[in-house]
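Example record used in the benchmark description.
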Amino acid sequence: MNGAIFFASKYGSTAQYAEWISEATGLPVFDVKNATADPSAYDYLILVSPVYYFRLVIKKWIRRNLIKIENKPIIMVTVSGAPAGPRLTAWIGKSLPEDFISRMQHFALGGRQNPKGITWYDWVMLRIGARMNPDPVARKQELKGFDFLDKSNIDPIVAQVRKLQPKGGECPIFCV
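Model output (C-alpha cells):
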C-alpha cells in the first residue's frame, strides 16, 4: 500500500509535523494548496491540520476531495493547543462529516503559538477566545503563547503507518 501526507498550515507547526512524519515514514508530503497533488493516487492518507477558531483548517480540502478519499484509510492529525478530549472532538465534529470521522484514526498533537508572530486579526481573536476559556491555565497559555512542538509526538503516528505497510501482501489493520 502506498500512502501520502496532505497538510494545511498557517504558522508552520503543522508543516513541521508533516515534514517529520514524511522523514520518518518515507511518504511524500503535499501542501493542500498544491492543486497538482491527487489524493486518489494513494491507498491511504495522513491528513495534518491545525485547529483555528474551533475548526480544522483542512476542512474545505477534505470536503472538496471527499469522493476521492471516502474509501481510504485515513489518519487525521490535529495540531493545536487543545489536548485530546471532548472540546477537540466537538471542533472536529463541526468541521467534518460524521461518516468520515467514524472511519478515521485521530491523533492530537500539541502545536506552537507565539502571540507576537501572528496577524493582527488572529491576535484580536486570540484575546477574545482566551477571555471565553473557562480553564485558567489554558487561558494563560493562549495569551502568553505556548510551545508543545516535539518531534517525539509523531511516534504513535509512525507506528500506525508501519501497520498500514504490510509485509508479504497481508491486509493492513484497517483495510477498507
